[in-house]
Model the fold of this input.
Amino acid sequence: MEKLDNVSADILIVEDEVAHADAILEGLERIGHRCRVANDGATGIAQIKNHAFDIIVTDLVLGGPQDGLAVLAAAREFSPGAKVILITAHSSVQTCRAALQQGAFDYIEKPLDLDELRMVVQRAAEDTAHRRAIVELRQRLDEKFGFENIIGQSPAMLRVLETVRRVAASDIPVLLLGESGTGKELLANALHQNSRRSDGRFVAINCAGLSETLLEDELFGHVKGAYTGATSDRSGRFEHANGGTLFLDEVGDMPPAMQAKLLRVLENGEVVRVGANEPIRVNVRIVSATNSDLPERVKNKKFREDLYFRVKGATVEIPPLRQRREDIGLLIDHFLKQASANHGTKVDGMSSDARRVLTAYLWPGNVRQLRNVVENMVVLSGGGRLEVRDIPPEIHKQPDDLADAQLGHLAGISLEQAEKELIRNTLKMTSGNREQAAGILGIGERTLYRKIKQYEIE
Done:
C-alpha cells in the first residue's frame, strides 16, 4: 500500500492502570491522534457501543469481569471496522495469538515500548484510512456509474473501474484483456451503461467456436433464400445493436476470413446481409475482449494487424483473481447471498478456516470458478455454516502446473532468500495488505511484521 503521511485516528484506550493509560494517551495525542480513555472493560465496552472508533488499544488483563477479549468481542459486534491492538504480559502471548484469529489487529508485549506502540497504531491508522478511501471511492463509482454488479474494492479493480469510467463517454473502441472468467462481459456492459448509447441495446456475441459461415450469419444476418432453410429475412447482431454497443467476446479467435469482413464494416459503417447486395448503414460502438495475446497472434499472422489497431482504441487490462486476493472475501459474501437466494438454501456464512483455504487458492478459472465453487458448497451443504469440509476436494490441492509456475523460480536459493521472496510476492499480490498476506502465508500478522523488518521489505 502507498504510505500515507500524517494519518490521524479516533482511538479508545482501555487500561485499568491510570499511569499507563495517561502515558499511552499522551504518547498517541502527541503524534496527532484523538484519544479517549476507559479505565475498565465495562466502561470501554459502553464507549464502543456509543462511539465509532478507528482503533482500540486495550490491555488484555483489566480490573473487573470484562477483560481485553471481551473488549475485542464488543468491537467485532458494534464496531467491526475498528482495529484492536492488545497489550499483554509475556505469559499471555499465546492468548493474543489466538485473538489474532478472532480479528485482533496486533498485540504488543509488556513492558510497553511507546515507540513500538506508535508504530503499530500508525500502521493500523494507515490501513483504516486506505480502506475508508477505497470504500468512499467505490460508493461514488456505484452511485454515479452503476458499477454495483462488479464486486471488488482492491486498488487493482478500482483502477480498472476508473479507466472504464473515463473511456465510457467516448465512442472509441475498447479492447478488454483478461483471462477467462475475469468478468470481461460485465465490464463491457458497464461501459455501455455509462456511455451516451445507454438507451440503445447492448448485444454480445462469442466469436470463438463458430465457423465462418455461422459467424457471418450471426453478425450480418441474411435475406430470404440466401441458403437452404433461410425462409425469411433476418437481421444480424450489427443491425440489432444499431445505436448501441456490440460486444465481440474472444475476438482473437475469429476465423481469418471473417476478420477481413469485420474490418470492412468497421471502416465504412455498412453491413451486407448474406445473399443481399445492398449495404445497410449501422452505427454501433465496438467493445472487444480476448484472453489471448493479440500482438503475438498478429506476429504469427493469425490476427490481422489492421483489425487489431481498429479494435484497440482503448485497452483495459483486467487482473486475474490471484492478483486481487483482497476481493475474494467480498466475492464470497456476494456469491453466498446469491446462491442462497437462487437455491432456497439458508447458510450462516463461512468459517475463517474455509475462507483462508479459498483465499490461498490460485483460481485459474478466476471469478467464474469461485462463483461455481461457492454455489456448489451452498447446494451440497444443505444449509448451516460452511466449513473446510464443504470445499470441493480439487481446491485443496493446487494444480501441478500452477504450483510449478509459482514456486519453480525459488529453486537453487537459500531458505532465507526463499522466505523473503515469498513474503515480498505475497505482499505485492495483496497490494500491501498485511492482514491478507499473513492469512495467505499462514502466520500471525505480528510475525509477518517482524519478518518485514528483518528482511527490510518495503
Notes: The mean pLDDT is 85.
